[in-house]
Automatic annotation (TrEMBL):
Residues 238-249 have a biased composition (Acidic residues). This is Radial spoke head 1 homolog. InterPro entries: MORN. SUPFAM superfamilies: Histone H3 K4-specific methyltransferase SET7/9 N-terminal domain. It is found in: Cytoplasm, Cytoskeleton, Flagellum axoneme. Residues 1-12 have a biased composition (Basic and acidic residues). It comes from Erythrocercus mccallii.
Length: 249
């Protein structure tokens, strides 16, 4: 069902309201029979999108409310979260930063609601990867991440005015007996090897000549639990946005 403007050829053109066969509704602008311009699309399952469209696809600025209570507000390109935007997750965590192909990609900040900690740095295809800073209540870690885990040289900076230098090292995988070969090995967390404690100093993610002179000691500082992953408390609630009827006439 459609109620609204049409052009001389009978196509939906201008402002209109539509009830789709699957129970979804759309109210907004059309051009030559396609959703183009600003509009609001309500899904039968409770999801809602309001923002810009281009030829039936979410394109430009828009806000998507998901059925689980999460929300994305930001840029869209051909139905994909792409550009800059903020995602409020169902568990209260937030991500603000760059997106590509529906995933966190580029520079961004992820805030963990339960602890107040936040990750500020690089992302690759939704995973923490590259130079970053993990900020906690009384201290922070600066270093590099790889596949969501800290790895390589870095330092912990404490609010009392000192910092601990060191390196996260990948633990060697232990060989298993033949009868256990069918069981997959458990993932090993990178191990923190501390070298020394100094006053506050400038930091770079790259190894410096001073760093090369540091010999790791036997002291071990366990990594903060929040460094182990994104801690989102569950996967994002994805809606089958393809429900939007691209065959409106």
């Amino acid at each position: 069902e459609y109620e609204g403007d049409r052009n001389s050829e009978g196509q939906r053109h201008g402002f209109g309201k539509a009830l789709l066969p699957n129970g979804d509704t759309y109210e907004g602008e059309y051009e030559f029979g396609l959703r183009t311009g600003t509009g609001t699309y309500r899904f039968k399952n409770g999801a809602l999108y309001t923002g810009n469209y281009l030829q039936n696809k979410k394109h430009g600025k828009g806000v998507f409310f998901y059925p689980d209570g999460s929300k994305y507000a930001g840029d869209w390109v051909h139905d994909q979260r792409q550009g800059y935007g903020e995602y409020l997750y169902a568990n209260g965590d937030t991500y603000t930063g760059e997106w590509a192909n529906n995933k966190r990609h580029g520079q961004g900040t992820y805030v963990y609601k339960d602890t107040g900690s936040k990750y500020v740095g690089c992302w690759v295809n939704g995973i923490q990867d590259g130079p970053a800073e993990l900020i906690h209540q009384n201290y922070r870690f600066k270093g590099r991440f790889l596949n969501g885990k800290p790895l390589g040289r870095g330092k912990f900076i404490f609010d009392i005015g000192c910092e601990q230098h060191g390196e996260y090292m990948q633990q060697p995988v232990q060989e298993k007996e033949e009868e256990d070969e069918e069981e997959p090995p458990l993932p090993l967390e990178p191990k923190w090897n501390a070298s020394d404690i100094t006053k506050l100093t400038p930091w770079s993610p790259h190894v410096t000549e001073e760093d090369e002179g540091h010999e790791p000691s036997s002291e071990v500082l366990n990594p903060p639990s929040d460094a182990e992953g994104e801690g989102e408390g569950g996967r994002e609630e994805e809606v089958n946005e393809d429900q939007e009827d691209k065959g409106e006439k």
